[in-house]
Amino acid sequence: MPRPHPALHLAVALDGAGWHPAAWREPDARPKDLLTAGYWADLVAEAERGLLDFVTIEDSPGLQSSLPFAPDDRVDQVRGRLDAVLIASRIAPLTRTIGLIPTAAVTHGEPFHLSKAIATLDYVSGGRAGVRVQVSRPFEAELFGRRTVASYGLDDFRHPDRSRPEILAQIAELFDEAADHVEVVRRLWDSWEDDAEIRDTATGRFVDRAKLHYIDFEGPRFSVKGPSITPRPPQGQPIVAALAHNTLPFRLVARAADIGFVTPRDRSHAAGIVDELRHEQAAAGRAEQTVHVFGDLVVFLDPEPGAAAARRSRLDNRAGAELTSDAQVFTGTPGQLADLLEDWRQAGLTGFRLRPGTLPHDLEQITRALVPELQRRGVFRTAYEADTLRGLLGLSRPASRYADTAAVPARRTETSRTPVA
Amino acid sequence: MSKPVKQIHLAAHFPGVNNTTVWSDPAAGSQVDFSSFVHLARTAERAKFDFLFLAEGLRLREQGGKIYDLDVVGRPDTFTVLAALAAVTDRLGLAGTINSTFNEPYEVARQFASLDHLSAGRAAWNVVTSWDEFTGQNFRRGGFLAQEDRYERARQFLDAAHVLFDSWRGDEILADQESGVFLGDPDAGRFDHHDSQFDITGRFSTPRSPQGRPVVFQAGDSEEGREFAAASADAIFTRHGTLEAGRAFYADVKGRLARYGRSPDELKVLPGVTFVLGDTDAEAHEKATLIRRQQVSGQSAIRFLEQVWNRDLSDLDPDGPLPAVDPLVGENTIARGRADVRSHRDPLAIAARWRELAEAKKLSVRELIIEVTGQQSFIGTPSQVAEAMNEFVQTDAGDGFILAPHLTPGGIDDFADSVVPLLQERGVFRTEYAGATLRDHLGLGPARTTRRAAS
């Protein structure tokens, strides 16, 4: 029987003890190990045993908060975390095939640093690096002290003020800046052609400087000269991903990313999101390029019917509130989840990023029950088919944009600006 | 009463992007592949070294307006490669050079605290400042610091980072599953820091790391640099690799510590040195000469001369005499992004000295440059080198060495196999790591703290 779609892609999103605020209180949780390398190594090894495409690692510059726009002073939830890029790098030598996509903030940091950090993650992992870019929360500006950012809702889907025009304009500017940031990161990855290093003893030249390129980026917020100090990474262009809930971040995904993580409520909502994203992709002139759209789901999984729902309500009771999330929360058996994934992918989603409610329980349900079920249905790999993240995602290795030395590289001086109505 | 025998500290410098790193040798490997870093780190750990050291440069060097193409170029991101090395080593300290001009304290503190957690207490930070607009062109911070503001920026940057490191005491995470209390203090990580460079407030997101703070290195030789080290650093990376200069420098910086209420043991003096080993003294010297010729090709010699002369000398014959024309005095425009150019403050005097030397010894341009730049610090049999290094440390010219091999990645293999055992036989170098953290290896006590007042 012919398969209706290519095999689906599956990733997990790792965050602390899991996505439920009370996850750290579960008997199998390791809340005192969250700042150790061993904790993350065990989780990623489990994900790799399940043949998942990649893991993402959550992060933010500032401390975790239960409030979207402000810090909180709660003491009953996990607080404190490590830099996600460094966690990914620490884990890379201990794994072989799984992709590693840490979260990085792009509002305050330097694109030059981020570019070489992810290039280096690509070197130490042998071509398995990506980065999920994130616009910072407003209150995080004061941690850096360099600029103020309007204290409005950014990407937050719940904020009541987010449709006011002046706020939209400010938010649009932050997303434009994020797109510029990614543009610089990507140009720097290409700034060394693959064969720039020549080690030519006859002429005494180590590099062919004609194959090192200034990127000469000029934008309203920053300019970057280049080239990178780090040679072109193994994948050429590591993967760029972003979480997107509405039009502005959809546009960022469409312009700049290889993967968008989206949060549909149901199959028809998913179809609408995919539609809008593909429209934005065409508008950004990238219709021919592969842009994956992954549906995000928070998952509570148990093999016995009803057990996951009971577990979730026990966790809700401990937390003192029902779990709310930007993503749909799924409670059920791995088989039921497999049904849902098969259904939603008909809407055009190319993969799913599952957020385990608790760790390691829900991760192990994914790798040891959901994956075998999807394999039985013939919709998920039974062995890794590639050894780079681009390869797992069906993306070829691109040539450097500067590689055509015969022609003057066509350079935009900045990425297009978002028109604000 | 005889002085107690000092223990030597040893570190491996990953070969850098200048002409001392020989790439033309068949044994020269990749400067960016992770396997090269693994090789050097594992060799250093097998030999019980204190730490691995990474330098940094944030813009490719240029000369005459073009990217410099004669030396090794290209390197990884410091934090990222050190975090990966933490996975393939257990005890080796991991020291990274991180610039305080093109970063902000919050992000650097977060990365070092994370590295210290992920390496279980092995992180070290060599604090440097840039001054040039040239490097700034790669950064949104852009701009440039006046020479006199550099140490002010570094000092305030380090102060701010310390405030962040110390914003967690280390006992806040209770993670009590029964009571549901994760954090014992709702204010954990709170900071509020204001000075002329920084204006930051909030809560730091990375809890206190195993060492509390990373070990802090300082690498400048100026008056301000020495004072900065005496006030704030745990170790100082110097260029004084000769006995006489070493002793003078050592006495000077150690003498400054008392003013800051610190004992001489609290600041380790570690010169960066090179070495060549041979089965006989004569063989070692032959190898040393050969390596110098690999390091200084005719073209490299011309480029060196251009840096002092501040002129295009591309038509000069490297095997001929020095140019008749004098150096161009003023802002050095010929070479950019190169740390040593700033030291050519009196090019006319240098030119006069070099002409005299070339005249006296009948040296060509290339021979002169070989003579006046980067002569190896220790040349001889393993036993001679071990003896000389030991004398250097026991007579207070240093507390140990940062070894800069000329080959990537196997440049310290011979040293690890032949010199280290001899130092161990003499009882001046460890045969096993006594502690787990880099502070333990360096014999530094617990990190000082400037803890926020208990609320």
Report on this structure.
Helix content of chain A is 33%, strand content 15%. Chain A has 421 residues and is of the alpha/beta class. Chain A has an 8-stranded parallel barrel with strand order 1-2-3-4-9-10-11-13, surrounded by 8 helices. A two-stranded antiparallel sheet of chain A has the order 5-6. A two-stranded antiparallel ribbon of chain A has the order 7-8. Chain B is an alpha/beta fold and 455 residues long. Chain B folds into 2 domains: 9-279 and 376-441, Alpha-Beta Barrel (TIM Barrel), CATH 3.20.20.30; 297-372, no CATH class. Chain B has 14 helices and 17 strands. Chain B starts with 8 loop residues before the first strand and ends in a 14-residue tail after the last helix. The chains are: A alpha/beta (421), B alpha/beta (455). At the A-B interface, helix 2, helix 3, helix 4, strand 6 and strand 8 of A face strand 4, helix 2, helix 3, strand 8 and strand 10 of B.
Quick structural overview:
Chain A is an alpha/beta fold. Chain A contains eleven helices and 13 strands.
Measure the end-to-end span of chain B: 50 Å
CATH topology of chain A: TIM Barrel
Poorly predicted segments of chain A: 407-416
- How much strand of chain B? 15-25%
State the helical fraction of chain A.
25-40%
**Between the first and last Cα atoms of chain A, what is the distance in angstroms?**
50 Å
CATH architecture of chain A: Alpha-Beta Barrel
Number of helices of chain A: 11
Major beta sheet summary of chain A: 8 strands, parallel, barrel
Largest interface: A-B, 80 and 77 residues
Shape of chain B: globular
Can you tell me the CATH class of the largest domain in chain B?
Alpha Beta
CATH architecture annotation name of the largest domain in chain B:
Alpha-Beta Barrel
Give the helix level of chain B as a range of percent: 25-40%
CATH superfamily of the largest domain in chain B: Luciferase-like domain
Number of domains of chain B: 2
Structural class, judged by helices and strands of chain B?
alpha/beta
